[in-house]
Amino acid sequence: MHDFIDKIIDVKVDGNCGYRSVTDLSGMGEDSWSVVRYHLLKELGKFSEDYTRLFGGMERFEELRKSLHVDGLTKVITDKWMDITDMGHVIASRYNVIVVSLSKQQSMTFFPLRSQPLSNFSLHRII
Question: What mean pLDDT is predicted for residues 36-49?
Fold first, then answer.
C-alpha cells in the first residue's frame, strides 16, 4: 500500500493532531490547525440543515460544532479531538478534497457533498 502513498506526515501530538494533519497535507503548515477548526465551524454553520440531517439530529450536530471551539491556550481535552468519522464529510466538503482514512480497524473515504467532480483528474486532491 505504501507504494501508492505520496506523503506521510508526523504531526505534533497535542489534541489538535487531526486538524494539524489537515493543514499540513493541504499545504498550510501544521501550525495553522486553528484555521481549519474555524473553517469547519463556518462550514457547519453555513450548511447546518444538511449536516443536522447527516449527523442524525440537532444534538449530535451541536456536539460536533462545540468540539471545534478551543481557546488555544489550554490543553485540548478529548471531547475536542477530531473524530474522522464525523469530520470527514465536513473536511471533504469545505476543502473540496477526497479524505481517505486508513486504519487497521476500519478504512473510510469521504467525498465532498456539494461540488462537481473536477474534469482534470490531475487536479484531484486526496488527503
Answer: 96
Residue 76 in this model has a pLDDT that exceeds 90: no
- Among 39-43, 46-50, 109-113, 121-125, where is mean pLDDT lowest? 121-125
Full DSSP string of 74-126 = SPPPGGGS--HHHHHHHHHHHHT-BEEE--SS--EEE--SSPPPPSSGGG--B
Closest CA relative to residue 62, chosen from 84, 79, 85: 79
Residue 57 gets the label, from left (phi > 0), alpha (psi -120 to 50) or beta, of: left
Q: Are 72 and 34 in contact (CB under 8 A)?
A: yes
User: What secondary structure letter does DSSP report for 31?
Assistant: G
Answer whether 114's CB lies under 8 Å from 127's CB. Answer: no
Model-level pTM? Answer: 0.86
Residue 20 CB neighbour total at 10 angstroms: 23
| Cβ contacts of 60 within 8 Å, gap of 6 or more | 86
* Cell matching residue 46: 453555513
